Amino acid sequence: MSNLNIDLLRSFLAVIENSSFTAAAQALGVRQSTVSGHIARLEQALGRSLLMRDTHHVAPTPDGQALIGFARDVLEAHDRLRAFFSPSGLRGRIRLGVSEDYTLSALAQVLARFADRHPSVDLQLTVGLSRALYQGYDAGELDVIFCKRRRGDPRGELAWAEHLIWAGRPGLIPDTAQPVPLVLHPPPSMNRTLALDALEAAGRSWRIACTSGSLMGLHAAVEAGLGIAPHSAKVMPPGLAPVPDAAGLPAIGEVEFVVLGPGRHHIVASALQETILASTAELQGVSDG
Questions:
Q1: 196, 207, 233, 247, 255 from 201: Cα distances, Å
Q2: What are the backbone angles phi and psi of residue 93, rounded to the nearest 5°?
Q3: Which of 13, 15, 150, 266 has the greatest number of CB atoms lying within 10 Å of its CB?
Q4: Mean pLDDT of 77-105
């Protein structure tokens, strides 16, 4: 089978959607003979009959029915590719929600590149805890979110997975005879839930030494020695270090970072999703946890 011209697939779908060669030609802005020629070339290239025709009706054959899904996927990908790399093709507003974990990472550079490439897109950024971002997305207040996967929610495209560890002031080892002093986000917080679940499962007592809604506030409290906190295993910010194994603390577990958007039909949102997913190595390399 030879390579297929994208215009052949476009004409095929136009005929299917309009149930008429004449209406398909009008929708595409070409002559009916052009559409007929495209269908003939497509059938020749595939070696299959794709349409059943009579004087009043056009319908797909079984092979034509099978082609519909493939053709839509190819055209959708083609159109998104052209729009993404067009210097002026993307326009509109996109509301992005980002987990606070990555606001101090290379995300700023990634978003700056997206804005430079698509200057006609208005990017509105919201920073918050992952669970709050899910709530905003489900309420229709955000178009795309980049955050930790919510438990039991299969949606979103996986960017990467990483382990959480216990972080504290360098050299700090919590007294095993005392409740573990914790520095945590207030609920709802996925890190908080995972940390408390791990301690409860291990039968280790704990106490909340400090609560802060700010990531910088948590780092400051941990650096001051008020307690320890669940943190990304990839990179420690200055002033923090992994708690030594001698503390006997349980493993916290793994979190998945996902990008969740409205789907491929939303070209602007899809372009932003692909930009983030293509930058995962960069984002992880300098992530602040």
A1: 8, 15, 21, 16, 18
A2: -120, 140
A3: 15
A4: 75
